[in-house]
Amino acid sequence: MEKQFIEIINTHQGLIGKICRMYTRSAADAEDLYQEIILQLWKSFPRFQQASSVSTWMYRVALNTAISGFRRQSRSLLQQELKPEVAGLPATDASRLEVQYGRQLQAAIQSLNKFDRSLMLLYLEEKTYQEMAEILGIAVSNVGVKINRIKKQLKNILNA
């Protein structure tokens, strides 16, 4: 069982790392959250019945751990800095505008409640509505409604 668990973690560690970076501000906080997620995955591993895919199970446990209050309320989403230069080339005016818009979008997403942030993370990861519903424990029909409401909310925030 331990060997199987380690193989699963090694295969899907990027998924856990991405969630950690999205829900923390510093590398130390991300590392703490990573360890907490691994612990929760280990605790729930014996109950994993493979009714869903491994990645769906991992997303659900990782998001629940991140949302559950492991961190203080002030933790934020999408802390990866957008770089104005790529491959050492100077940023153009257009890319500067993209960076500025990206930062505004990050701030808008940060203003969402934790559940909506989780849903947007899955949406941006291009998960299917079915996968999002399974991970978050909501009806598939509710996923589309919530995404549309969140998009409108983000649009209003960005246009304010």
TrEMBL record:
**Family that this chain belongs to:** Belongs to the sigma-70 factor family. ECF subfamily.
An example Gene Ontology biological process? DNA-templated transcription initiation
Q: Which SUPFAM superfamilies match?
A: Sigma2 domain of RNA polymerase sigma factors, Sigma3 and sigma4 domains of RNA polymerase sigma factors
Q: Where is the RNA polymerase sigma factor 70 region 4 type domain?
A: 103-154
The alphabetical list of record keywords is: Sigma factor, Transcription, Transcription regulation
Record-linked Pfam families: Sigma70_r2, Sigma70_r4_2
One Gene Ontology MF term: DNA binding
Q: Can you name the source organism? A: Chitinophaga parva
Tell me what this protein is called. Answer: RNA polymerase subunit sigma-70
> Where would I find the RNA polymerase sigma-70 region domain in this sequence?
9-75
